[in-house]
Amino acid sequence: MPIMTNSLGLHFVALISILSAATVKGAEYDYYKYHPMEEIRNWMAQMVMDYPDVVTILDYGQTYEKRTISLLKIGLESEKRKKAIWMDCGIHAREWIAPAFCQYFVKQILQSYKTDTKIDTMMRNMDFYVTPVLNIDGYMYSWKDNTTRLWRKNRSPGPSGDCYGTDLNRNFDANWGTIGISFNCSSDIYCGSQPVSEPEAQAVTYFVGSRKDDILCFLTIHSYGQLLLVPYGHPNFTAPNYNELVNTAMHHCGHFL
Ligand SMILES: [Zn+2]
């Protein structure tokens, strides 16, 4: 395995290693190319048919353009109340490798839980909530043509109606509107008219908020930067378990060295 080194060398190595560990099984669905939304929806339904004991689809919201937002709930039935891990992909429309990663992740855990005791234990004790594409309107728009390929935001109109899209990643009610944002609707980092103004952000906030005692981990997958970012994206506020988060991140990057 080639080891590329630069200031972010750990992350480069991690990515290459995941790819080289891939198998060619599941040939009917190509996990090495990007898929339009309709194919991803069909793939979700296929996962439920192929693994009915562990996979269900939960619809938990609607996009601005009234498309249903769905996730795959993955886990073995249990008498006890289970903890959960949240993972969303495709909050930024143009970052196509994020939805591709979510699909690949789902395939890997479903193919291996019967033979891998570690994953079997996780599936018994926890559920995974995986949203392959959160920003569906934006994702579909980024597939439209070459002029829309780099669309990032959702598709709701701005206050004056002459610009479109809120950066959903900057719309949550966490230090909203304070840093790394724009109040100009034409900007790629427009944070919306108020916290959680967007239906996609509302869906996540409600789903996660109503289960917050059970959710152990919240992962949101992006591309471009080979970076692991920890909460809260603000210089003055860090998570109470900041050290644990950084240590965990370093530990997992270290696995691939
Ligand atoms: Zn992003």
Q: How are the SSEs placed, and which strands pair?
A:
Layout: H1 9-20, H2 37-50, E1 55-62, E2 68-74, E3 83-89, H3 97-112, H4 117-125, E4 126-131, H5 136-142, H6 199-209, E5 215-221, H7 242-254
Parallel strand pairs: 3-4, 3-5
Antiparallel strand pairs: 1-2, 2-4
The structure holds zinc ion.
Zinc ion binds next to loops.
Family: Belongs to the peptidase M14 family.
Signal peptide: 1-26
InterPro entries: CARBOXYPEPT_ZN_1, Peptidase_M14
Main features:
single chain; 257 residues; alpha/beta; Aminopeptidase; five-stranded mixed β-sheet; 14% strand; globular; disordered N terminus; binds zinc ion
Q: Span from first to last CA?
A: 10 Å
Shape: globular
Number of domains: 1
Tally of helical segments = 7
Question: What proportion of the residues form beta strands (DSSP E)?
Answer: 5-15%
Family: Belongs to the peptidase M14 family.
Domain Peptidase M14: 33-257
GO molecular function: metallocarboxypeptidase activity; zinc ion binding
InterPro entries: CARBOXYPEPT_ZN_1, Peptidase_M14
Question: What is this entry, summarized?
Answer:
Helix content is 32%, strand content 14%. The protein is of the alpha/beta class and 257 residues long. The site of zinc ion has 3 residues, from loops.
Descriptive report:
The chain has 257 residues and is of the alpha/beta class. It has a five-stranded mixed sheet, sandwiched between helices. The N terminus is likely disordered. The protein has one domain: 3-Layer(aba) Sandwich (Aminopeptidase). The structure holds zinc ion (ZN). Zinc ion binds next to loops.
